[in-house]
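Inverse folding, one chain.
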């Protein structure tokens, strides 16, 4: 499940990292945010690349999910659909 990040969720991110292109997602995959030893996971959604900024594991009975906040890597749309000169 993917949706725009809520204002409450954005409050969990440091002020200077908010780009205006954040999404919240819940999935069965174990997503990871970056550490000193490893880069954060990358997500492709609707043709755009996102970087995991915050991830939390949720266990619900016999099922487990990851809730993550991901940030848009580039706020400029790709020009692959434009005519070249």
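Residues assigned per position:
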């Amino acid at each position: 499940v993917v949706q725009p990040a809520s204002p409450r969720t954005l409050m969990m991110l440091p002020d200077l990292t908010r780009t205006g292109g954040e999404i919240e997602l819940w999935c069965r995959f174990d997503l990871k945010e970056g550490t000193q030893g490893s880069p954060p996971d990358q997500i492709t959604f609707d043709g755009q690349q996102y970087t995991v900024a915050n991830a939390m594991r949720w266990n619900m009975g016999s099922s487990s999910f990851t809730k993550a906040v991901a940030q848009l890597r580039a706020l400029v749309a790709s020009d692959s659909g434009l005519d070249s000169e």
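The CA atoms of residues 48 and 76 lie 10 Å apart. The longest strand covers residues 48-60.
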